[in-house]
Specification:
With about 350 residues, this protein is mainly alpha-helical. The strands form 2 sheets. Strands 1-3-2-4 form a 4-stranded mixed sheet. Strand 2 and strand 3 form a beta hairpin.
Length: about 350
């Protein structure tokens, strides 16, 4: 099999051609021979190989028995065409999509062994784009061997999301028989992913609850200060037609609850769950309110005084108050600047709450 020697145009235009003679326009003859598994010989230039890879530079720098002896570098274990493409990349860092599709795996391995960062990055990107259920386990093993964290994480995520399908692939069956350590790592990652999802879902549900309570506090102040459709302060003009407010769904629920709280006969005995809920909302408002002397929400000042006598609330209640205040701050920040300024300058009036 005749040796491969790269054309003059490819060698002369490479940024590594330090020995290129600008006057004569000539480049020294190839002085390195690369041997592949299939017996293919690739002629290359020592200066270019050494400039491209610290590993090749170390190999080429080893002392030889005879200075005139030919330098031979074996690159075995990969297809001949992949080695030829790899060497050509050292001269000119370009590869077609078709070449990357066909030899991306081999180029990643070679770039890892010979420390070619830009080729490793390019190969990793191509392999990530072409990940499939059938090859994801093989790609995971390759990513671990070649120390490619981006590809490794992408493979782990795909396996975790499609584990039932991955279980039926030949790659997974081979992994179970020959690499139980990696199998354990995958199963641990899946368990951790599920735990994170549950925790995220739980936190989202809790945050939704705190946002609902924050909105309820705003609606309670709105009802007791300005009045809504059917409930408001005693001095409100009841004949005046009030339109639907921006949070009417929450306001409507609170108005129904307030009307029930005002007329319930079981409230005194503590046997009404709806009244208990309203009582908790009044208490929560009092814990948040910073103007109890001016506040028109019923029982606000009484709850403040009771908390002072008891020297504060219990830890769980304080945590709830802190969470609701945080949710209110987040909601406020999401409002337009003009709306925030209007709310900041709005002052509560003095009066008592009426049905």
């Amino acid at each position: 099999m005749p040796p491969i020697e790269f054309p003059y145009e490819l060698v002369a235009n490479t940024p590594f051609s330090d020995n290129f003679d600008q006057i004569s326009g000539e480049f020294p003859d190839a002085d390195v021979k690369i041997i592949t598994s299939g017996g293919l010989r690739i002629l290359a230039h020592r200066s270019i190989l050494a400039s491209s890879s610290p590993v090749l530079e170390s190999i080429l720098g080893r002392p030889r028995k005879h200075r005139s002896s030919e330098i031979t570098i074996p690159i075995l274990g990969v297809p001949c065409d992949a080695v030829a493409l790899f060497v050509r990349f050292l001269y000119r860092p370009k590869c077609t999509e078709e070449e990357m599709d066909k030899y991306g795996i081999h180029l990643l391995a070679l770039s890892h062994v010979f420390l070619i960062p830009h080729l490793k990055q390019r190969s990793t990107k191509v392999l990530i784009e072409r990940l499939m259920i059938d090859n994801v386990v093989d790609m995971l093993q390759l990513a671990r061997l070649c120390d490619t964290p981006d590809l490794y994480l992408k493979c782990m995520k795909m396996i975790s999301s499609n584990f039932k399908a991955v279980e039926y692939t030949e790659g997974w069956k081979f992994l179970q028989d020959h690499d139980p350590w990696l199998e354990l790592k995958i199963l641990e990652y899946i368990d951790e992913t599920e735990l994170r999802k549950k925790k995220t879902r739980r936190n989202r549900e809790e945050q939704s609850l705190y946002l609902q309570l924050s909105e309820a506090m705003e609606c309670l102040e709105h009802i007791c200060t300005e009045g809504c459709t059917s409930v408001g302060p005693y001095d409100m003009d009841r004949q005046k037609n009030k339109g639907l407010c921006s949070k009417f769904t929450t306001c409507q629920g609170l108005q129904i609850l307030i009307r029930h709280f005002a007329t319930c006969k079981r409230r005194a005995n503590g046997g009404c769950s709806r009244c208990k809920r309203m009582w908790q909302l009044f208490r929560l408002h009092s814990s948040i309110c910073d103007q109890p002397d001016l506040c028109r929400v019923p029982l606000c000042r009484q709850f403040k005084l009771k908390a002072q006598v008891k020297k504060g609330d219990d830890a769980r209640w304080r945590l709830l108050v802190r969470k609701v205040v945080t949710a209110k701050a987040i909601t406020s920040l999401s409002l337009p600047k003009r709306k925030r300024e209007e709310e900041a300058t709005d002052h509560l009036g003095v009066g008592s709450f009426g049905r």
